[in-house]
Amino acid sequence: MSLYTIGDLHLHYQSELKAPAQLHDRVWKNHEEKFRKNCSKMIRGEDTLVLVGDHSWGKNLSECEADLQYICDLPGRKILTRGNHDMFWDAKKTARLNDLYQPRLTFLQDGYETYRDYALVATKGFTFEGPFYISRAVRGQRPHGDYAADAQGRIITWDEEAMEHAKKLVEREMQRLRNSFERARADGYQKYILFLHYPPTNILEKRSPFTDIAEEYGAEQVIYAHCHGESRFHDSIQGEYRGRVYRLVSGDYLRWKPLKILD
User: Fold this and answer.
1) What is the residue extent of each domain of the chain?
2) Closest among 183, 207, 214, 197 to 113, alpha carbons compared
3) In angstroms, rounded to a whole number, what is the distance separating the alpha carbons of residues 261 and 29?
4) Topology of the domain covering 3-262
């Protein structure tokens, strides 16, 4: 029995695809079939697969039925967490999704699931990604978006209002996360793996409220996704840091091979 994870499948069997990278980048070509084949080779019926957000481009559940059926048909037990593009999933209506799909799929929100003697705790998270900008050309990467920087990559724009809004979102996600940890702790769990969709830090941070809570509760691993394309793969922490192991599991980063994180 093993625990696997991956994020950002961005399925679109019944919805319009608007992401330029998925339309043009080679790594996304036939990614659904690549992932299906890799799962069939790697994952057994007794294994668990945690899918870390951005499952579907569908705007509502009716546009996601084929995408969710695709996930249902994958081998193993499937646990889904929320991503920023999962418009079909209202956090307050998670129970309805579980009523519709369990035991084929489990939608994890405001609680925890288990794997052996571990509690699997998850929330979408949030990272203030701008408006600020550090020139990616300095880091061997391409600029994107509407942000500006000088040739040395120094920050020359900053939006205080956007940052204050981000703080409110982080506080909301932190409360959800803390509640989930406390529920697991109250039930006797002492070993944790933390799943986020957003990275735990932005490109300016070495630590954040999410890294702090991982340390507070002793999470052994912090799993996250959201960072797409080679220019974004190093936006946050990877590897061992302050006693935790941080892992990026975006599908294009993993080349559509689910990552085994526990036996």
Assistant:
1) 3-262
2) 183
3) 26
4) Purple Acid Phosphatase; chain A, domain 2 (3.60.21)
Tens digit of each residue's pLDDT (9 = 90 or more) over 239-253: 999 999 999 999 999
**Do 90 and 43 meet the contact criterion of CB atoms below 8 Å apart?**
no
Whether pLDDT at 152 is above 60 = no
pTM: 0.90
Residue 258 DSSP label:
P
Rounded CA gap, 116 and 237, in Å? 27
Provide the pLDDT confidence category of residue 16 given band limits of 50, 70 and 90: confident
What is the rounded average pLDDT of the residues 182-211? 95
Provide the CB-side half-sphere exposure for 185 (13 A, CA): 10
Helix, strand, coil tally for the chain in percent (to 5): 30, 20, 45
